[in-house]
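User: I'm curious whether this sequence folds into something compact or stays loose and floppy. Could you predict its structure so I can see for myself?
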Amino acid sequence: MKLNVRFFALYRDRAGTSRRCLELPENSKVSDLLKVIRSHYPQLAPTNVDIVVAVNAEYADENTILSEEDEVALIPPVSGGE
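Assistant: Here's the prediction. I'll summarize afterward.
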């Protein structure tokens, strides 16, 4: 199945692109996608950093099943404030 992956902020800079189409097997989970993303972009985030994922504009956990043509957003952690 094909998935549209969007990279935001720091992840966009580190990946060198704002979006990428990836192909994964049917019934893949967010955790499967993250393994592929980390293998393609090892500089994206340290392994001890959880990558926040949204699927079709809804936050998703690693067990979320992905579907054909899902729009997946990778969102870096936000820090700052007082």
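Summary: The chain is about 20% helix and 30% strand. The mean pLDDT is 93.
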